[in-house]
From TrEMBL, chain A:
Signal peptide: none annotated. It is found in: Cell membrane. It is a multi-pass membrane protein. The chain crosses the membrane at residues 238-264, 291-313, 333-358, 379-400, 412-435, 683-705, 736-763, 775-798. It comes from Phytohabitans aurantiacus. Residues 242-360, 687-804 form the ABC3 transporter permease C-terminal domain. Keywords: Cell membrane, Membrane, Transmembrane, Transmembrane helix. The keyword Transport does not apply. The keyword Ubl conjugation does not apply. It holds the Pfam family FtsX. This is ABC3 transporter permease C-terminal domain-containing protein. Belongs to the ABC-4 integral membrane protein family.
TrEMBL record, chain B:
Keywords: ATP-binding, Nucleotide-binding, Transport. One of its GO terms (molecular function) is ATP binding. PANTHER family: ABC TRANSPORTER RELATED, IMPORT ATP-BINDING PROTEIN. This is ABC transporter ATP-binding protein. InterPro entries: AAA+_ATPase (IPR003593), ABC_transporter-like_ATP-bd (IPR003439), ABC_transporter-like_CS (IPR017871), ABC_transpr_LolD-like (IPR015854), MacB-like_ATP-bd (IPR017911), P-loop_NTPase (IPR027417). It comes from Phytohabitans aurantiacus. The lineage of its organism: Bacteria, Bacillati, Actinomycetota, Actinomycetes, Micromonosporales. Residues 4-241 form the ABC transporter domain.
Amino acid sequence: MLTIALATLRTRWVSFAGTFVALTGGAGLIAAMGLVLAASVAAPPRPPVRYTGDVTVVAPHGTLTVSTAYDTKTERLVDPPGLPADLVARLGAGVPDRTFYAQLAGVPAREPAGHGWSSARYTGYALTAGSAPANEAEVVVTGGARPGDRVEVRTLTATRPYTVSGLVASRGFETPVFFADSEAARLSPRIDALVMTDPPDTVRASVGDRARVLTGVELGELDPDRDRDADVLNDTNALVGIAGGFAAFVAIFVVASTFGYSVVQRRREFALLRVTGATPGQVRRMLYGEAALVSVVASALGCALGAAGAPAVLDWLIRLDMAPAWLPDSGSWIPLAVALASGVTVALSGVAVASWRAGRVRPVEALREAALDTRAMTLVRWFAGLGTLAAAIVMIGAAVVDPDSATSDKTYMPTVMVLVVACGLLAPAVVRPLALRLTAPLRRLRGATAMLVRENALTAVRRTAVTASPVLVTVALTGLLGGAAGTIDVAEAEQSERSMFADYLVRPVGAPGVSRALVDRLTAVDGVDAVAPVPTTVYRVHAGAVLVAWPAKAVTAAAVPNVLDVRLQAGAMSTPDSASIVVPDNWGAGVGEYVDVWLADGTPARLRVTGVVAEGQYPDAYLPARYATALAPLVYVKLRAGADPAGVERALRAAVAGEDAQVLTKRAWAATAADRSADASRIGLFIVLGIVLSYTGIAIVNTLLMASSERGTDIDTLRLTGATNGQVLRALVGEALLAVVAGVVLAAAATTVGLLGLWLALLRLVGPTAIVMPWPALGAVTIAAAALAVLATVLPVWRRLRRPMALAE
Amino acid sequence: MNAVQLWSVSRTYGRGERAVTALDDVSLELAAGTFTAVMGPSGSGKSTLLQCAAGLDRPTAGRVFIAGTDLTGLSENRRTLLRRDLVGFVFQSFNLMPSLTATQNVELPIRLAGRRPDPEAVRTALAAVGLADRAGHRPAELSGGQQQRVAIARALAVHPRVLFADEPTGALDTATGHGVLRLLRDLVDRYGQTIVMVTHDPVAASFADRVLFLADGRIVDELVEPTAATVATRMTRLAAAPC
């Protein structure tokens, strides 16, 4: 009886340690992700970036206010005009600040910006080499050239030579080119802001409501990358939200299965307690008490680890450009409370199910040599497993019926989780047929390994299933998320290729757009029609009541309807330099009529309608190219009938040579446009998935160590029966690998069902597409899982084998 | 030829002052086809004797021969291979693989030795221990006596030169224990099997041809053609002897 007690204690220690590790890791994961999410969601207003020091800045309102029949409507202008000249004249003092497009040719730039040199001192720039621009022909830059170098500088209208007079250190948020003030005024006459050194109240008094007067934190409103920063923060929220969801899911999955197993492992101990007179209720109460104690301590430790790790995760996201750099760590206690509460709740509910069984353990089982575990699927488990599977199939069905939602993370992620849970619950049912099938070919062999692996797996179904669970989660998440990402990319590529009229596309490299000179050269290439639309906005009062910011494209070319997907219902495209417009049919204006609109900078204009475009849900308006206020982000090139594609491609490439641009075929463009593998959010998702998977990796090792703790007697028996160390290791490694295979098979089933659903949805959405499997990632994850399983099996067995055999006395 | 030979075997556990001598210069020879019982009070070294004789444990000094093969200086792996071919074991706690059926447990040592089990031979072995109708049952579905019979069938599956039994009836009730002992006796009489059995039960010892009495790691007495009564008398005398 003493040996039983000792063996129970040893088993208990390992299973205790196992649940402790699972809980600590799970709570840590939830806490860390929760803290990062809290940091991102509760981000404070961003401190001003561009303007530094104690200045007051006068800036235009940047809005269009229109009185309609009912009231006054205001819209933000996409291209705000400068400060009114009379206001600047009246203020007299102040440094004019101009911001316009300028960048060194051939030097890739993020957020390129040209400024007058006098604004440099108010925006945190100081010379690190050389001198300030002394005349119209000199510039100061942050890099890519040295003082004295001759450089080509691109602006909206032209590319001109300048001499670098000095250098300033980059501040990260823009890539500036500083011109002499006079040159800046020539390149961009409007004054975007006026930097005042007078006290704000004085300035405010003289400005009145003709412009904004900003100071302190308000200066952040003028930051150039404010919108982009908000986008990044949005992405961060989405990314961390998804990651946090998966972290919580995986943590709960692993903790629940580990706790369930630890109770199964301790059957013998419960039977002993029952023998000594414990009532089923006492056994249950003991279990709850233990679980509460262990889970509180383990979760608290996990919270501490999570709190320590969260800043590192946030740092990592920032370094990878997936979170704004100024985001402070969260000091919120809510994620910690959530992590602690989930740890305790999951542990207690894991025990709730298992303890019901534990309380029913009959005392005689203590006297049994070993309890067989051949029927691990209880009725409740069948019910729950098939129920979740049905739920997953209903979710997939709903996604196929409404395919637009199928590709969104909000629909796909929960489907993935429910599928994985269903497979986890049904795992024990799969273990038996799988063990039989896998060892069938080995059955005729005379060796003992196949027989031992098969029979051990068949009589310890729970053990095999619980070992398979973390492998299932690991492989299924990789397959389902990676497969969905690749498949959706390919579908989108096909979609955009199909809807693309042009044969070639010219896109900028390291610049926001294609220079006008290059557009002219491309238009001149023989045998093609080239169109370079520039997105802009026209404002219009719709139905006499609503001010609408209407998307428009500034483009002049008769060929537009051939090259872009534009269906002219009546009339023709606008002629260059005319005050005209092509309107969507829902504007209700006919050819030859006049429409009153406001342009992107708020200038009112009366334009003659030259054409009407039809169809499409949201057709753009088309304006003549002279209304363009930026560079074209993409040039569309279409072959004319009879043109020689090879010759045209050569001519296009020749035209692009030396420019910051490249020529792509329609197919190549579609592939790169849809390939989001380099996207911050995609990389971020996989990095966070990596963190989650390293936890499941720990879980694989953990459950195997727990499982090996009950194998001591088996190992000794095998050795006494004449097994060499190698044979013992082979049998146990075989068992572990069988569990890994069971996990992989279940994961394959989940992945197949999930991706098939996605494929059906995409079939309805864009037609037949290929399913792209992340084979390298799947291979790596599977091999890693198998390696961990082998390692976690071999090490404890090896330790046991080095000990002398325990003979029963 | 002798099935088992021990030449002045000693086994000491621990080192220095805390060293315990479990076997002290024991020499003995066990002839093939004999049934020997080893008796002695707790701590007399009888289990150590069995483990050294069977090659499970390595003596500190002396040499052990099984079927003429010297075990001295062999690696653990070599000794395992040798044991597999020459030795069978039966333990108090049966030590069956709980996941395997009776048939599979019997097949196990054959398969471990890399041979294909002959289904007919396995059936016969199970029939010989009276378990022909329990071939497909797992240990948890068998009674203690039945489990011990499976263990005996398993031990005999590789036709060992010696069968070592360590308290084979220790976990069984008297009637079942008798059944198992009669089976062992039968194996010696009918098939000439060599058996060495460690026991503290005089009745069990009376089934042997010869009884060796161990005290403080030495063989102190011997009894041929024992009966339960004579064994009990010798034991009482041993226990009464001053230590």
